[in-house]
Amino acid sequence: MAALRRSPVGHGGWAERAIEVVNMKLKLESSEFGERQAIFIAEIVERIKIKLQEAGVGQDKLEDLTASIALSIAGVIDDLAPIEVDGVEVHPYLTFRTEDDELLHCGENAYTHEQVYRAMKRAFGF
Known about the structure:
Blueprint: E1 2-8, E2 17-23, E3 25-28, H1 30-54, H2 59-77, E4 84-85, E5 88-89, E6 96-99, E7 102-105, H3 116-124
Parallel strand pairs: 3-7
Antiparallel strand pairs: 1-2, 4-5, 6-7
């Protein structure tokens, strides 16, 4: 599998970009994938919570809104919700880059929606 990787050029800016083609290897490893997926969804939950707090959402609604948004996003990532625009269907397949030339996957659709509750427990301390 080939992928394009953008590299910064010049003085650390992104004004000019060099594109490099990298041959990617797919690595099937369910356990390691599950660990990374849990970290990923926990980060999404935490960022949703922070943005809702910044928007002034009260504590009484914060937990429910965070869970609702996180589950909605997880459903899209996990390909549980149909995505189609102008006859083009989109089916996401989550992978994690573990090395410059390696993508980690679990051999099926992601299951981030199953990990939202644990992420919510961590974010809200219950």
